């Protein structure tokens, strides 16, 4: 039976073990405790036999376990606790940091798993689908747009998918069919055009380009120069009025400034019988500037009998997420189509095409460069398709897909 033995000032539990030999006693103890034991007593004990014969012997050893290591660990923990107390260490911060590190590692692991899963899915895809998907990503089409294309490709037969040239042409046709072009129909004179959109997209320059385009088209048709007037209600940007007037001077076009809806109405009523076109420039606001957008909408909420074409002006390089936000916040102006500016400042237009397609919006004009004279044209499907990279489709093939559109 185990009992306690007084060793120094401590009561240490004394244990007993039996074995056939002394070496076997030590072997058993070593297997149990390594070197962390001490034998306090060992003696032979005889059992059985007759008249002292045929007895068998076993050794009974008493021992104690050496607790030095445990005591050292307890001492270390106690010392650590005292140090932390003296330094006013907040262990909760350490716990939070550890949890944050764990979450970070977990997130990285999830991403790796997702990437492996995506790689696995890609490996299962037909090579033509995987290649088209990569090209669409490089052109910055949105995930939903790409997913729609690849889903449609899965309906093709293996033989059709094996013909990659045919796959490219098919996808190009699908993209073209998703682009809606604004119908430039003759309008009652004067044709009133209003440009709205966020700051920095080049509305003022685009107004001047549209006026210039109108003049050029009349000249090409051997028609008299159109009578045009321009109005700016942009009173927020320094030099906005002066900029439009400089453009007006270049084309011999008068420019007026309007501060209120009544001002616009007076100008319109005064010149409507003698004008072919009236262009109205507006200030640019962030899509989140609800107050000023609301005020401007109030200024234009009644078309004043003008029956205008309202165009939302956006940059070709705008991110898909931002374009969705812009369209949402300017929807109140009931814009009929979109003008894409700064076409020359990006090589990837998939973001714009994706959002226009998903929102069912038409595109009317494409503008690039800072020069007023020229550098704007009516949007065509072919113009968009020919700007896509890595499809390696001849322009004549695009013209065949969308004849009369270029």
Can you walk me through this structure?
- The protein is 48% helix and 19% strand.
- A hairpin with a 2-residue loop joins strand 1 (3-7) and strand 2 (10-19).
- Helix 4 (127-138) runs antiparallel to helix 5 (143-153) and helix 8 packs parallel to helix 9 (240-251).
- It is α/β, with parallel strands linked by helices.
- It is built from 15 helices and 13 strands.
- Strands 5, 6, 7, 8, 9, 10, 11, 12 and 13 form a nine-stranded mixed sheet that branches.
- The radius of gyration is 42 Å and the shape is elongated.
- The chain has helices spanning 22-33, 68-86, 91-124, 127-138, 143-153, 158-162, 164-178, 203-220, 240-251, 261-271, 290-300, 320-330, 350-359, 381-385, 395-401; strands at 3-7, 10-19, 37-47, 56-65, 180-181, 191-196, 228-232, 254-257, 277-281, 309-315, 337-341, 362-367, 376-378.
